[in-house]
Amino acid sequence: MESFSELLKVQRDFFQSGKSKELSFRIKALTSLGNLIRSHETELMAALKKDLNKSNFDTYITEMGILLEEIRFTLKHIKDWTQPRKVKTTFTQMGSKSYIYSEPYGVVLIISPWNYPLQLAIAPLIGAIAAGNCAILKPSELTPETSKLMAELISKTFPPEYISVVQGDAEITQGLLEEKFDYIFFTGSVAVGKVIMEAAAKHLTPITLELGGKSPCIVHHDANLKFAAKRIAWGKFINAGQTCVAPDYLYVHRDIKDEFLRVLIESIKELYAEIVKNGEFTRIVSERHFNRVASLLTSGEILHGGKNSIDNLTIEPTLLGGITWDDAIMKEEIFGPILPILDYNDERTMINKINEHPKPLALYIFSENKEFQATILNSVSFGGGCINDTVMHLSSPYLPFGGVGESGIGAYHGRGSFDVFSHQKSILKQTTTFDLPFRYPNRKDALKQIKFFIK
Ligand code: NAD
């Protein structure tokens, strides 16, 4: 294509042809997408290994597996989701029927980050296809192997007027954002989220922003410490902490802090010592990000780990103690394998402290006490999370996934992905068998009669 406006035009023309809206076309496209992932497993795993030193196991469970499951779930329900949904009609509109039609927006732009470069580009695409849209995908420039391979595979599988991949950096994205899209779905940082929202505002384009932030993980004195330690160590250090919903920091009750730290260190060793030793631990994506994350190691004191290498862009799983809210590590999202630990005695003070900061994308509570769990859920606003686990909520197609406040706008996954890319068109079908007189003003006692119905 000569220019982005030309690409937009051919996609718009294709959308107008109505092809992408046909149910059979959507089903075929989703099936092809699933086959693309299955049949290029080896190449995709190799690309992610090159970009992030991701192990095949991690690539499968955090990227390909999630996508295949989303496609399976979508194919199972798509017939149902695309039907007009009949809803109730009020007594005052007697004789009519009401329906909600899910209508595709048109040409949508999906901008994705580098940390799960395959999953975070393709998961929204599944929703866009299911809802009947055409799409332009702009993956991250920081994972060039995966982005290049995705562009290649998508162009072999779908015509450009239906789905296209545009590769490039911030400048290229800015160029795309000049165009008028019908929907923009962005996953990335809070700072760039603001740039996207501003650009979308110029065309009044609706958006979803899947952003990040500092997600707290609370370990109460009555928690099952063994399970807590293992599930936190996994959720924090998977992908070297470069997960939007990774526990950013721990808030541990003072009574069990020492014991919990002991079990947590054991869990980290059990899960990661061998992987780190064999050079199989995921690396930090770039030198710039490495320098940013490594500089945070100077906060507090190192309780475990801390070794790092700029040559390999690796930082081993690290625990930091003696942390206060004034430390540099508590000022920004860490997005790396460093876990700072704060403690608390008084739950109200701990809750107030969390609430002094932007609403997190995720929050995790480890406790056996239902009252304590309910207090946190009722007192803190956050995107979503788990009780007695970490990260797992994002893998359920039944749970809409997204942030609130600074951690994002909108949610997807499962039915949510279909809804995000659909406009809900409300239609009232009126009867022509009779005509209720109440709305008309030219009757005796018109107001009195209408007041009889509207209490
Ligand atoms: P980023 O915001 O730097 O980049 C995301 C995308 O935006 C990339 O495709 C990039 O090319 C583009 N971009 C960068 N600068 C831009 C600019 N000035 N104008 C237009 N486009 C621009 O994010 P990242 O570093 O790739 O990813 C890390 C961030 O993403 C973290 O904050 C993390 O929490 C967040 N994240 C959120 C989710 C979620 O689902 N909520 C998932 C993964 C990552």
Mean pLDDT: 97
What is the 3D form? globular
Mind telling me the C-alpha Rg? Answer: 25 Å
Main beta sheet:
7 strands, mixed
Indicate the CATH topology of the largest domain: Aldehyde Dehydrogenase, Chain A, domain 1
For the terminal residues, how far apart are their CA atoms? 60 Å
- Tell me the number of helical segments per DSSP (H or I, 4 or more residues long): 15
Strand content: 15-25%
Instruction: Return the CATH class of the largest domain.
Output: Alpha Beta
Query: What compounds sit in this structure?
Result: nicotinamide-adenine-dinucleotide
Overall structural class, as computed from helix and strand content, comes to: alpha/beta
**CATH architectural type of the largest domain:** 3-Layer(aba) Sandwich
Number of domains: 2
Biggest sheet strand line-up: 10-13-14-9-8-15-16
Question: Can you tell me the residue ranges where pLDDT is under 50 for at least 5 consecutive residues?
Answer: none
Helix-residue proportion: 40-55%
Number of strands: 18
Q: What is the fourth-level CATH superfamily of the largest domain?
A: Aldehyde Dehydrogenase, Chain A, domain 1
